[in-house]
């Protein structure tokens, strides 16, 4: 099972709530749809027929499903993706633990938080998935870099055209003491060097995550989760 949330934070105007946008690549057959259903009423309270139906679009030959909802800044919930037919009957669902949505620190009314997810196929397939293979993890690592959980708010305000990106992965087959790093092309992801990578912090229930302030010029990002 791969649980990936990337919180890309931008600001919009004249809004009294935060907009959460779901995005997931998934190929469906004719007559099939993707929806998000979760623990809160706005996502159906686990009633799939009342969940958020996503809309498809093509991006570089890949079918992407997306949709958004307005929520308060302190919103949190559990959720999962489902494949349904035209009548919203469930045809397929994700395997593994429920996803957990926790908005990044510093998010305020008028912000947009984008969640970039991958379909969860179950813990048995986790060690063989491309996303998992590309994450750097070991039982012990002699790196001196330690990055605290949460975003440095002063850094966010001081850097012009900056956004908050949240990296999050669920690794049920990995023990709590394991170190997991994200490497990528931007400077704050180490420019593909392990010594400068972003260390994820254990958040409980097999989830590692970290927030990072990045410049808009760094996008599009190149990093292991693809």
From TrEMBL:
Give the matching PANTHER family: 4-ALPHA-GLUCANOTRANSFERASE, PTHR32518
GO molecular function terms noted in the UniProt entry = starch binding
Q: What Gene3D superfamilies has UniProt attached to this entry?
A: Immunoglobulins
Q: Which organism is it from?
A: Coffea canephora
Matches recorded under CDD domains = CBM20_DPE2_repeat1
Name by which UniProt lists this protein: CBM20 domain-containing protein
Domain of life, per lineage: Eukaryota
Q: Which residues form the CBM20 domain?
A: 12-121, 157-226
Positions of transmembrane segments: none
